[in-house]
Amino acid sequence: MEVFDTIKNYLEEIANSELNSQEVLEQFRIRFLGTKNIIKPLFAEMRNVPNERKKEFGLALNELKDKAEEKYNLVKSQLDLSADKIKPKGLDLSLPPEPMLKGSRHPVSIVMNQMINIFEKIGFVVEEEREIEDDWHNFTAMNTPEDHPARDMQDTFYLKNSVTNLLRTHTSSVQARVMTTQKPPIRIIAPGRVYRNETISARSHCQFHQVEGLYIDKNVSFADMKQTLLYFAREMYGPKTDIRLRPSYFPFTEPSAEMDVWMGTDTDTTKRLTKGTGWLEVLGCGMVDPNVLKNCDIDPEVYTGFAFGIGVERTAMQKFDISDIRLLFENDVRFLRQFSSVV
Ligand code: PHE
Question: Which residues line ligand 1 (CB under 6 A)?
């Protein structure tokens, strides 16, 4: 019968109608529940329905009315709820927080902290010192003669209108600070930033970081230094790491050496960083020159010691496969965010 089909169609319409605003909902109400709604005239059809189907017809009509009311009430309460949300209603502590971007450590800090942890494990204590130094702590105390090329204006940033104040060119200035204020045994590491007036390129920058180490006591030997540095290399670069010490020269150590770590030439980064040799130069070191001890009032007849200065950037570049040192100082968040999962 036709009226049954009409009811069926209305039921489908109710189920499928998307009532996503107050206006659409109101139209729905007028159509199905208002004073001139479309269900009412269907009741008048009752008399045309054959007796044996009257009950079925009544039930179908009631269902239609119920479904319309049900839908209307449900949507209305949902819309009211979301309208309430827009109106501020004090603080709701049960709401989930806005997602927060986690910060990330700078790759230089990550590597520097690893280095600090490695030396702290064997009893070295962190000393942090000023970046603006005087001539004496940076050079004179460190046995660097007046005419040494490192003093040249080309390399050192002096402060305006000053011939004595400068930006430290190495963390070795902390050695002088510590030796003049502490008594042996001394066992410190000094992480920090240093400055040199160098042309900026993919390989070198005018600012970079070092971790300085100094150990002074009775009977400290070159063998102690070598073992300490081998321990460092194997903690930092892996338990099977090979090192080599090359004779070198620093005014403040005698004998002096530079330490290389075997990296191989498997990747473009290691190829570039090792200049194709596979050996990455990571630090300068040596036995503290007796003149340095004397300058700082420590008796070289009683005490000996070793010192080293590790370059941080090169290791950071090798660890994270960074091809250009300038990336480390540009503070581009797209670069920095990549380290948010590293501690
Ligand atoms: N200060 C030296 C440099 O900057 C490194 C170094 C530190 C060498 C301590 C020997 C001892 O190159």
Answer: 170, 172, 250, 253, 284-286, 307-309
How many domains does the chain fold into? 2
Residue 55 has pLDDT above 80, yes or no: yes
Full domain range(s) for residue 289: 107-339
Query: How far, in Å, is the centroid of ligand 1 from the Cα of 284?
Result: 5
Q: Is residue 90 part of a domain?
A: no
The Cβ of residue 207 has, within 10 Å, a number of other Cβ atoms equal to 16
CATH of the domain at 144: 3.30.930.10
User: Do both 117 and 63 map to the same domain?
Assistant: no
3-state SS assignment for residue 257 = strand
Same domain, 72 and 173: no
Task: Give the mean model confidence (pLDDT) for residues 217-229.
Answer: 98
Ligand 1 centroid to residue 302 C-alpha, Å: 23
Q: How many residues does the chain have?
A: 343
- Which atom of ligand 1 is closest in space to residue 256's alpha carbon? 10
What is the average per-residue pLDDT within 259-285?
92
> Closest ligand 1 atom to the C-alpha of 169?
4
- Higher confidence at residue 149 or residue 312? 312
Cβ atoms of 205 and 174 closer than 8 Å: no
Q: What's the 286 CA to ligand 1 centre distance in angstroms?
A: 8
**Percentage above 90 pLDDT, the chain:** 73
* Through-space distance between the first and last CA atoms of the chain, rounded to whole angstroms: 75
- Euclidean distance between CA atoms 197 and 192, whole angstroms: 17
What predicted TM-score, i.e. pTM, was given to this entire model? Answer: 0.72
Q: Whose CA is nearest to atom 9 of ligand 1?
A: 308
Protein residue closest via CA to atom 10 of ligand 1? 285
The confidence band for 145, taking pLDDT boundaries of 50, 70 and 90, is confident
Question: Average of pLDDT values for 302-309?
Answer: 98
